[in-house]
Design goal:
Layout (H helix, E strand, L loop, with lengths): L5 H37 L4 E8 L3 E8 L1 H6 L3 H11 E5 L2 E2 L4 E6 L5 E8 L5 E6 L10 E8 L4 E7 L5 E5 L1 H4 L2 H18 L1 H11 L5 H23 L7 H21 L7 H21 L10 H29 L3 H28 L5
Parallel strand pairs: 1-8
Antiparallel strand pairs: 1-2, 2-6, 3-4, 3-7, 5-6, 7-10, 8-9
């Protein structure tokens, strides 16, 4: 073995000493980094909730924070002071009045702040939460905007950079009276512009000779379409609109043909009831297009007022056309001729709609 000189031995010792010092320094740096990082890793950025419920009497915003997040802001009292300042609610760009507030703290230290605003009629509600930006970095807040019955109008996750949510609350803030008038007018307009429904009704009434028969016919039609209108709007029954429209056209053709091939007397209420169930599915399309009955949206008042409007419209039409029919066929023979001509026109129009709807693109 070759001997090691004193100089080489000293050089090796120096290198070992330098390596030891570097190792100790690295350990110190890693230790400090770990100690500094512990508070950051141990603190969950957190998730809070802001639930805004919009009603006709008042709007209520509830901010819920976990104990750690409330402590980050200085505790329950501090959160109560910050909430009215940093939660901004605007309706059609107008800020709501200063709210009445209340604070509650649960057994775990979680804080719940309730802000109550006076009701205001409007359409576009915007909610901005400055609270989320004052909490730990990365904190998020779940914003839910709901109607009075709990239907979700808007829902999104807020953070420091994106802290605003909006929702259309026109129906939620509208009073019951104006809501009834709106949907009642919609029902009247729907029946007056629903030429297929009116033609079906006219085909039934053109052969009626007594007001009792007219009343039975309208009553059977009303009861039947009210049933399926409610079932389809609430989602209990779901039929493809293309099939429904084809069946409505077929019902028109059937009534016209029956008028021509047989001497029809009386109200034919059973036939009217059966086809009325199909027509009710057609009426429901107007409400579904407005989102009524979807996603938990309020349905009772819109459904009742829309149906009332449909009835008003068809009663008005019947009151107008029945005396006209009777005036145009004063004699027995003229009655037959007039009814035959009208029934033939009913068959032609119904057949046109039936073919048109059979060849139209599929809709569901």
């Amino acid at each position: 073995m070759v001997g090691i000189t004193a100089t080489e031995c000293a050089a090796r010792t120096a290198r070992r000493s330098q390596l030891a010092r570097l190792t100790r320094r690295a350990c110190v740096v890693l230790g400090l980094a770990f100690i500094a990082g512990v508070p950051v890793l141990a603190h969950d950025p957190g998730l809070s909730a802001l639930d805004v419920r919009v009603g006709r009497q008042q709007t209520i915003a509830v901010l819920s924070l976990a104990a750690a997040d409330a402590g980050f802001l200085g505790g329950g009292d501090a959160v109560g002071q910050l909430a009215p300042q940093f939660i901004q609610i605007r309706l059609d760009e107008r800020p709501l009045d200063r709210p009445i507030e209340s604070i509650s703290i649960d057994a775990t230290g979680g804080v719940r702040v309730t802000l109550i605003y006076r009701a205001t009629v409007g359409s576009r509600l915007s909610v901005r939460s400055g609270i989320v930006g004052r909490l730990a970095r990365g904190h998020r807040e779940l914003l839910s905007i709901r109607a009075e019955d709990g239907a979700v109008l808007a829902e999104r996750m807020l953070d420091a950079e994106s802290n605003e949510g909006v929702a259309n609350v026109a129906e939620a803030t509208r009073d019951a009276g104006s809501l009834f008038i709106r949907f009642c007018a919609l029902g009247i307009r729907h029946i007056l512009t629903g030429y297929d429904h009116l033609l079906f009704l006219a085909g039934l009434l053109v052969v009626a000779r007594r007001w009792r028969d007219v009343l039975k016919t309208i009553t059977a039609f009303t009861v039947a379409h009210s049933i399926t209108l409610a079932l389809a709007t609430t989602g209990v029954v779901n039929a493809p609109s293309r099939i429904v429209e084809m069946l409505i056209a077929a019902s028109i053709v059937y009534v016209g043909v029956e008028n021509l091939v047989r001497s029809v007397q009386g109200s034919r209420w059973k036939l009217t009831f059966g086809f009325g169930l199909i027509h009710g599915l057609g009426f429901a399309t107007a409400l579904r297009d407005l989102g009524i009955g979807a996603g938990g949206a309020a349905v009772s008042l819109p459904l009742a007022s829309f149906n009332a409007g449909v009835e008003m419209g068809q009663i008005a039409v019947a009151a107008l056309i029945v005396p006209l029919f009777w005036k145009l066929h004063t004699g027995p023979r003229s009655h037959v001729r007039f009814a035959s001509v009208c029934s033939a026109l009913v068959v032609i129009a119904g057949s046109y709609w039936l073919v048109e709807r059979m060849v139209s693109p599929v809709r569901f």
